[in-house]
UniProtKB/TrEMBL annotation:
UniProt xrefs under Pfam families: DUF2071
Taxonomic lineage of the native organism: Bacteria, Bacillati, Actinomycetota, Actinomycetes, Kitasatosporales
Organism: Streptomyces ferrugineus
Protein name stated in the entry: DUF2071 domain-containing protein
Top-level taxon: Bacteria
Amino acid sequence: MPNPTPVTPDAPAHIRTPLLTQEWLDLAFIHWAVEPDVVAGLLPRGTVPDTHDGMTYVGLVAFRMHRVGWLRLPGVPYLGTFPETNVRLYSVDGHGRRGVVFRSMDAARLIPVVMGRVGFRLPYLWSRMTVRSAGDTVTYTSARRWPGPRGASSRITVRTGEPVEEPTGLEHFLTARWGMHNAFFGGPEPLAYLPNHHPRWLLYRAELLTCEENLLTAAGLPAPDTDPVSVLYSPGVPVRLGRPARPAGIPTP
């Protein structure tokens, strides 16, 4: 196993020249604990499950993507603004870099979905989606359109509670993720690491009022048979994404 870098609430390095800029707004973080062996085969070659106290986690993260922009150009108001819901896992590579691996990324704009699939080889999926706030509750809905499986959908409602004054070790582990692992390139060793940078999360504890979904099973994961171990809400952060770095390295025993 690699020796992972420490979990830090702040990004380890500033990204001076971003590949992409965007805002992540109105985020609901919902997580279930799983044994690492359950998800190890779903991670890209060159990574292993990242763990906290011996367990790894499956995340369902719903939010609004806002004004995606390239390089230093202004963010796009319409095509770059849309609801998104991700199923993600937690990974570490041979250099000890902690990241996330996306199993599915439902989004409400077709052109960004196609660009994400073709340009970045990310598992974007076109879905009909809404995000609606009413008082202290936020409801996220999605119904998959393309490429499928058709019928994959979710309806999530959270009620926000008290602000998190000092996140626990697990809450830092689940939210302070400073990159993603993905097969951005072709070739025999395609794994790469794309870093991100954003301010420290403002988090709120949240109550999960509704969670009707089959996105996890559609992403190849077992259906949860317990309540989530963590439910959090954040109003959001501005984000910079750096350029993919290759190779990310292969963990060694």
